[in-house]
Amino acid sequence: MPEFTALWEGGPAFAQAEHFRLSTDCVLLADFVNVAGRKRGIDLGCASGAIALLLLWRSPRLHMTGLELLEDAAELAEKNMERNALQDRSRIICGDIRRHRELFKSGSFDLVAANPPYFPVERGKLSPDEKRSGARGEVSCSLEDICAAASYLCCTGGSFSVVYKPERLSELFCAMTAHGLEPKRLRLVCYRQDSAPSLVLVEGRRGGKPGLDILPPLILTGPDGGDSQEVLRIYHRN
């Protein structure tokens, strides 16, 4: 039986998979996504369903689909939805992102989100654990695969939101624009005010016109070394 814990007082209950712990990346992305007016969303590589769950909690009009390659993670994502009585507004599919054309019709969603693997197989050291390495490295899904799927699944005018590493921002922008996803919003995530960014949050628009809005950076810690006011807001601690 999964062990469910409330993410914050009065918030959704969530059980974590052994190989997919709830990460800061997921929480920041779920907060960054603009859900206004969106009705049909999909999380590519949803693991145990954290991003979909947080987005559903934010927007009562939204229906979320989660696509996950690993069966045990997909099953836990379903349980997380059921535990929060969100099964009527969610659907979890166990499938391969690279086979998205076999699973969905083109333009099925107006919101696409992804926390993709950050590291190419030939760059960096990956975990010897197969499931962990698949989550962090491009073992079974590349950046190109993610952007191709997002472009196919997203309707014209729909949004694609992603969290990624700043050192690969150029690659991300190139892959997005090559697939008709115009970058529209960018936010850097920094540990301290004087730190180099450790993450980037990007939103693209399917068929959008050129023009990028660069938002103020998201600073994770305050001058005292504790959580910043924005982090406290995102984690519902104030």
Summarize the structure in words.
The protein has 238 residues and is an alpha/beta fold. The protein has one domain: 3-Layer(aba) Sandwich (Rossmann fold), CATH 3.40.50. 29% of the residues lie in helices and 26% in strands. The protein contains eight helices and eleven strands. Strands 3, 4, 5, 6, 7, 8, 9, 10 and 11 form a nine-stranded mixed β-sheet that branches. α1 packs parallel to α2 and α6 runs parallel beside α7. The protein is globular, with a radius of gyration of 17 Å. The two termini are 32 Å apart. About 2% of the residues have low confidence.
Number of domains: 1
Classify the helix fraction into a percent range.
25-40%
Second-tier CATH architecture: 3-Layer(aba) Sandwich
Number of strands: 11
Question: In CATH, what is the homologous superfamily?
Answer: Vaccinia Virus protein VP39
The 3D shape can be described as globular
Rg over CA atoms:
17 Å
Distinct helical segment count: 8
Mean pLDDT: 92
Are there runs of 5+ residues with pLDDT below 50, and where? 131-135
Classify the fold: give the CATH topology. Answer: Rossmann fold
- The string of secondary-structure elements, in order, is EEHEHEHEHEHHEHEEEEH
The major pleated sheet works out as: 9 strands, mixed
Query: What percentage of amino acids are in beta strands?
Result: 25-35%
Kindly, what is the distance between the CA atoms of the first and last residues, rounded to a whole number of angstroms? Answer: 32 Å
CATH class: Alpha Beta
Structural classification: alpha/beta
